[in-house]
Write a structure and sequence with these properties.
The complex is a heterodimer of chains A (410) and B (409).
Chain A lengths: L15 E4 L6 H9 L3 E6 L23 H6 L3 E5 L5 H12 L3 E4 L5 H4 L4 H7 L4 E6 L14 H7 L24 H19 L5 E6 H6 L7 H8 L16 E6 L2 E6 L3 H15 L20 H12 L4 H10 L3 E4 L3 H5 L2 H5 L3 E6 L3 E6 L3 E3 L16 H7 L4 H9 L4
Chain B lengths: L11 E5 L4 H11 L3 E6 L19 H5 L3 E4 L5 H12 L3 E4 L3 H7 L3 H7 L4 E6 L14 H4 L24 H23 L4 E5 H6 L3 H10 L16 E5 L6 E5 L3 H10 L14 H6 L1 H12 L4 H9 L5 E3 L3 H6 L1 H5 L3 E8 L10 E8 L4 E2 L16 H8 L4 H9 L5
Parallel strand pairs in B: 1-2, 1-4, 2-3, 4-5, 5-6
Antiparallel strand pairs in B: 7-8, 8-9, 10-11
The chains are: A alpha/beta (410), B alpha/beta (409).
């Protein structure tokens, strides 16, 4: 591909990225698409399976109405190819020859079984950068093990440290296992593009294991190191820490508020404030003063006093009044809170996108706020909407396209 | 012999700030070949050197290795001058200090641009750099609650579910390298620099996308269904032999149910009508979970996993530190590598850093042409000579003078 500059106000050059991923990698292509790459979702003629995933806009089912699909495919284009037919493979190779990047998350060796592995594709495009995002990576004894969001959260150890100490390991919601691998893959793809285009390098293959990526997403707990150093298995501590008091989530007048007292100065500010409000002198006890772990022996009594204090305020009151006293109280938000949050409003976080079926909705796209560059705002693609243009560019004429369509190849 | 180029060879990045997200960004860029100069001072140490879970600093190599570590006290006139000289020869400046602190130190954005017209600025905060929370203080472990995910986890009516770590920081830490490399590419092609602001709050909130669209469309808040799944059963973690040992199992299709039943020896309950279809299993999942849990309870988590994966049913031990450390799979992929770390006695103002051996994770992306560097983990100030003398061309007597008055310390 000719190497072009990014358009005015856009971060990335219009790199052509072929996105063949399922949920394991869909966020990777989305990041690149939101910041200006030409990301083409390559779907089977029946459509990506996540088009069928509820909930649907206004609860009316339809392949252009899945909230999941609409969010994760914003700013992408769509072509359809049946990769399991030899004609489809020929078309796909032409497409790969025109691309800068290919991202996939199929089971290990699936692309090879189609003759579309990296070694085959680089014959037609030596500059191609191909990234595979899979549960356990391309090598090692677990490479063919089956996974799901739950299984990945278990295998990485995320669940071991989420939830209540008296209960079972807990899954984090929102399919959190699908972010670390996708994000790491995006960094490696950017590095590989920079290498190819700014350092006169070649294309390359990138193997990302979701398990490894997830392990690096909680290295401040670092269970493997803790085990080596102290023979301990790091585990769940529930909503509130048992070491740092107070640290965690506490009930407020209208919901939940999280709080963390880390420095001795913060404790002094909080205990004085609590005394002012409750009139209970117990909180000023000399034994409770000091650094963040000095109150661990008094967890029960201090936590009870903290709850007596927090339940006298709304979460918003504690959030703002805490800051006036150099104390960190953070509201526990749900999605409806995010949509009205003044901070997100002020920092170019939301972008209106109008989609013919889904209507006009606010999309959270502004991971970065910048005066120089902003995200692009095209709605998620209709199934196969870009077949004519993109396959046309590859030299397939109307008759060929019609024939492929009739036989279900595209 | 010419040294083989790395993706970011020739790119110099100045990093100013503690904790997780920002240092992680620097570490990833350093592993891709950038020269990342981490500016810190012996007087105000990164709190992460003392996090107890790491046995005081054991996890620091995750965030600090592969960098050049220099000690500059930017709050002194001499230190500030040296810092400004470094700005002039850097491509990227990144910081997570509150902007009013940077202003107070005399390194506000216009000053940075005056020193280096085309410098790329990445400015990271907890809650946001502009807008009403602009001066707010925050901690990453709490900001995970702000993005909406803790009220999508756990069970309805229960307290918000917390992960015992500063989780949202990592989203930010791995988003930022993408933006910085994008900005470097863009500058290379157009000559235009960029200033970008990121926050841990936004990085967390962006992941709530589908639920945000659903709420706008239907007014519905995300369901909290614990370890269960809307479409699959059995689906959960089941207790196994041993202390706090669990195996996660997810049966997603009818075929997998048949294989699951066969693998566990087709007990009578497998052929009950109440479990014969996914719809039936979802309806009767309380009883089904008890029965599956009865089967796992007499077996080790490893046996359960191998038995089910052997027939292609998704299952995994809930990994503990011991499992990760001893995993043959992770070993085969060379995931954990040895690294030194350094331990300081906080009560001793001279900070004699003692060296120990620990482990750190390799970079998850395995790149065929340009493998990411694991990198050497320098001790604090270890690279002072290289940075001050070789990069800035300072004389030994200049360095000595500034060290003596603690501008470089």
């Amino acid at each position: 591909m000719p190497f072009q500059a990014p358009a005015e106000g856009v971060l990335l050059p219009p790199y052509r990225v072929l996105d063949l991923t399922g949920p394991e990698g869909v966020f990777c292509g989305k990041l690149l698409a939101d910041y200006g790459a030409e990301v083409i979702k390559v779907e089977p003629p029946t459509g990506d399976v996540t088009r069928q995933r509820p909930p649907f806009i206004s609860d009316v089912p339809g392949i252009e109405r899945s909230s999941y699909f609409l969010f994760y495919n914003t700013n992408k284009k769509s072509v359809t190819v049946d990769l399991e037919t030899s004609e489809g493979q020929v078309v796909f190779k032409k497409l790969a020859a025109s691309a800068d990047v290919l991202i996939e998350s199929f089971p290990v060796n699936y692309m090879q079984s189609l003759g579309l592995d990296y070694d085959s594709l680089r014959q037609v495009n030596p500059g191609l950068i191909m990234a595979s995002i899979t549960p356990f990576g391309q090598t090692g004894p677990w490479k063919d093990y089956k996974s799901t969001d739950l299984i990945s959260l278990a295998a990485s150890g995320f669940m071991q440290i989420t939830g209540d100490p008296d209960g079972p390991p807990l899954r984090q919601g929102n399919e959190q296992s699908h972010f670390p691998g996708a994000q790491h893959a995006a960094t490696a793809i950017m590095g590989a593009l920079f290498y190819r285009d700014m350092q006169d390098g070649r294309g390359q293959y990138i193997d990302v294991s979701m398990q490894e990526a997830m392990i690096t997403y909680y290295t401040d707990a670092h269970p493997a190191l803790a085990y080596i150093q102290r023979g301990e298995n790091v585990t769940r501590v529930g909503t509130n820490s048992t070491l740092v008091i107070p640290l965690g989530a506490y009930p407020s007048k209208d919901g939940w508020i999280s709080a963390g007292i880390i420095t001795p100065r913060e404790w002094e500010n909080l205990s004085n404030w609590m005394f002012e409000v409750t009139g209970n002198e117990e909180i000023l006890n000399e034994d409770y003063k000091g650094g963040n772990q000095d109150r661990a022996p008094y967890n029960d009594i201090i936590t009870a006093l903290v709850i007596d204090f927090t339940t006298r305020f709304t979460s918003e009151e504690l959030f703002h009044q805490g800051q006036e006293r150099n104390l960190v109280f953070i509201p526990v938000n749900t999605v409806s809170d995010l949509l009205v949050d003044p901070q997100l409003d002020a920092s170019n976080f939301w972008f209106d996108i109008d989609h013919a079926d889904a209507g006009n909705l606010k999309y959270p796209l502004g991971v970065f706020d910048s005066e120089e560059v902003t995200p692009t705002t095209n709605p998620a693609p209709y199934l196969g909407q870009d077949n004519e243009v993109i396959f046309g560019e590859l030299g397939l004429d109307e008759a060929e396209l019609a024939s492929l369509r009739t036989r279900g190849v595209i | 012999m010419v040294e083989r180029k790395k993706p970011l060879s020739g790119v110099r990045i100045l990093e100013l700030g503690p904790y997780v997200a920002l240092p992680l960004t620097g570490r990833i860029l350093a592993s891709l070949g950038a020269e990342v100069i981490k500016v810190e001072t012996n007087k105000v140490l990164d709190e992460m050197n003392f996090i107890p879970a790491w046995s005081r600093g054991g996890g620091q190599p995750e965030f600090q290795r592969a960098k050049k570590r220099v000690t500059i006290d930017v709050r002194t006139p001499g230190g500030l001058e040296v810092f400004k000289e470094l700005v002039k020869v850097s491509d990227v400046f990144m910081s997570n200090f509150r902007r009013n602190i940077l202003d107070r130190w005399g390194v506000d954005f216009p000053e940075l641009r005056r020193l280096r017209q085309d410098i790329i600025i990445m400015w990271q905060t907890g809650l946001g750099g502009i807008g009403p929370y602009y001066t707010y203080k925050s901690y990453g472990i709490l900001v995970q609650h702000m993005g909406g995910v803790s009220l999508m986890s756990g069970e309805e009516g229960e307290p918000p579910a917390t992960i015992n770590t500063s989780y949202s920081d990592y989203h930010t830490g791995v988003f930022q390298p993408v933006a910085i490399m994008g900005a470097l590419l863009r500058r290379g092609l157009t000559g235009q620099p960029a200033t970008m602001e990121s926050s841990i709050f936004k990085s967390g909130a962006v992941t709530a996308g589908p639920s945000l669209l659903d709420y706008q469309s239907t007014g519905r808040l995300p369901e909290r269904i614990g370890n269960r799944d809307r479409f699959a059963s059995p689906h959960g973690v089941y207790q196994c032999l041993g202390e706090d040992r669990w195996c996660a199992i997810a049966v997603q299709t009818e075929d997998q149910w048949v294989d699951f039943c066969k693998a566990i020896g087709n007990p009578n309950w497998c052929s009950e009508d109440s479990f014969s279809t996914m719809t039936a299993r979802l309806e009767n999942q309380n009883r089904l979970d008890d029965l599956v849990g009865g089967w796992t309870l007499t077996r080790t988590a490893e046996d359960v996993m191998e038995c089910l994966q052997g027939v292609g049913v998704p299952a995994s031990v809930v990994s503990q530190g011991k499992d990760l450390n001893e995993s043959l799979h992770l070993k085969a992929r060379g995931f954990y590598q040895k690294t030194p770390y350094y331990l300081a006695d906080r009560g001793n103002p001279a900070y004699d850093w003692e060296q120990f051996e620990g482990i750190a994770s390799a970079n998850p992306p395995k790149m065929s042409e340009t493998p990411m560097d694991f990198g050497h983990y320098s001790n604090i100030g270890e690279d002072n000579d290289y940075v001050f003398k070789e990069i800035l061309g300072m004389s030994q007597s200049d360095v000595d003078k500034l060290t003596e008055n603690q501008s470089l310390y």
